[in-house]
Amino acid sequence: MKPIQITHASLKAHDHDRFRWLKTGGLVFFLMGTLVFLASLCLSDYEITQATLTMSESKVSSQRLESLQPLLGRSFSSKSEALAEISSHIKTQDPNINDYELGVAQFWVLKNAATGVLREHTFFYFLLSIMLAIIGGLLYIVPQFFDSLPGIKNNNIWFSSTMARGAIGILIGVMFIAFYVLLYWFPQYIVNMVLLLDPVSYFIRNLPADQWFLYGFLYTATILVMGLRMLAKYRHSRYHIVRTFSIMFFQTIFAFILPSLMEHLSLPSMDLKNAWPLNYSFFADWNISHLLSSGNFGFFLFVWGIVLSVVLVPALTYFYGKRWYCSWVCGCGGLAETMGDPFRQLSDKSLKSWKIERFLINGVLVFAVGMTFMQIVNYASDGVLFGNYTWRVNQAYSFFIGAAFAGVVGTGFYPFMGNRVWCRFGCPLAAIMGIVQRFKSRFRITTNGGQCISCGNCSTYCEMGIDVRAYAQRGENIVRASCVGCGVCAAVCPRGVLKLENGPAHDRFNLLESEAVN
Question: How far apart are CA 44 and CA 102, in angstroms?
């Protein structure tokens, strides 16, 4: 009798068959939830009543609400028609209103005017859309913990329509970009999506949901769900397990739960891990005045923000490099490491890209420092020295850097340029930490060039566009300002050539005397 041979391939096929139904069901649930979420945009009519105006009083001035009195009793089946009428009446009363303030008024009046099945069954549609998509994502990911042996699986990644700039990847990128454009500049058009989060917002904050609560909830849920994917993919590596849990913890607690609870308690709200200049409005006159006039807790937040930015960031970067923040704490980095992980191989490794990177990120840093100088001087001089120019600079930075670069490009371009577009080309905090890491830090990635087989995995999967293989082949330590210490280069190396280390700052460079330091 011929013995039965059980191979790794047969075990893998068995696992695949065993979990196929679960992954298929998860994908179906995710798509169904996403479709309901998108369909929610069309599930409301709008009726402007006195109750509508009353609910809007905390967000819209009484004069502007007074101008909407002629619309009382009017019903609209078209969102565009309702917004046009609201805009027309407000502009009649206040012809000089700017686009931002008009958008705020339109958003709250339209949201409070929503009627129909979505208003009557908000929590049900929340479960049927966002929660169903989350459950679907979990069902799709959980089998990966049991699917074959532990280890990084990047098979056929360059043949994937999603991960190799194919049609699905382009569609995902377009959807990301469209969402960010609506979120930042036209939130009045997504009031129904925001309305879905009202039950959760009232439970956590005791406040109605706005577009930023919607964004924060989706952002956190994405990091948690895709963080589970990271844990499954990198479950063989203790380093990646710990840093993924760290990312999930800091986003959930520091960036979402604690700020929401501060609002619930009517306290000043702030993401406790968001350091300047990433938090570019921290030194704005209105923010300083708000914190210092909010009692002891506001004073604590003000002092904490300064200590975090001026003391903790450079000190921890000296000891651990950028990785302590960019790959363990930061929300932008957290989204890049979790949701963006499938796209990390798309980062450009060319010398030209490196030159553009250094020019852009340091240019943004100079912009942020100049703006902050104007903010501090404006606050100290009570607006005498720079006057309205500070506000204009703030608005320009907010539009071009805070919204367009960090949001629309930084996340929307994942499927086109890789997962660290913002971190690599635009983040001013990363620029500051990069300077410290490059010239005065204990962190480095050591290489054992004698073991390198030039497979190129390290360079391919470097999300920061570093040609790691070139360093490894020469046996040089990798000391680059852009490196975020994610450790994936070491994880994908089949020979153990690369190692993340912290050592004496004076001997990080192991170059020959005749060689120049990059």
Answer: 21
Q: How many CB atoms lie within 10 A of CB 349?
A: 18
Q: Is 110 in contact with 191 (CB distance < 8 Å)?
A: yes
Q: What is the DSSP letter of 427?
A: -
Enumerate the β-bridge partners of residue 347. Answer: none
Cα distance from N-terminal residue to C-terminal residue, the chain = 65
Query: From CA 252, how far away is CA 183, in angstroms rounded?
Result: 21
Size of the chain, expressed as the number of residues it contains? 518
For residue 72, give the amino acid letter. L
The torsion angles phi and psi of 152, rounded to 5 degrees, stand at -75, 125
CA 301/CA 314 separation, integer angstroms: 19
Q: Return the HEC string of 88-111.
A: HHHHHHCCCCCHHHHHHHHHHHHH
Helix (H) and strand (E) counts in the chain: 28, 5
Radius of gyration of the chain measured on its C-alpha atoms = 25
The alpha carbon of residue 44 and the mean position of all alpha carbons in its chain are separated, in whole angstroms, by 29
pLDDT the model gives residue 307? 98
How far, in Å, CA of 6 to CA of 4, rounded? Answer: 6
What are 6-37's pLDDT values in tens digits?
455 554 555 556 788 899 999 999 999 999 99
Gap between the Cα atoms of 245 and 334, Å rounded: 10
Sign of CA dihedral 494, 496, 497, 503: positive
pLDDT in tens, 456-489: 999 999 999 999 999 999 999 999 999 999 999 9
Q: What's the number of CA atoms in the CB half-sphere (13 Å) around residue 42?
A: 4
Asked whether the beta carbons of 55 and 112 are under 8 A apart, the reply is yes
For residue 277, cis peptide bond before it (omega within 30 degrees of 0): yes
pTM for this predicted structure: 0.93
Q: Where are the alpha helices (DSSP H) in 145-284?
A: 167-185, 191-195, 198-205, 211-233, 238-249, 258-264
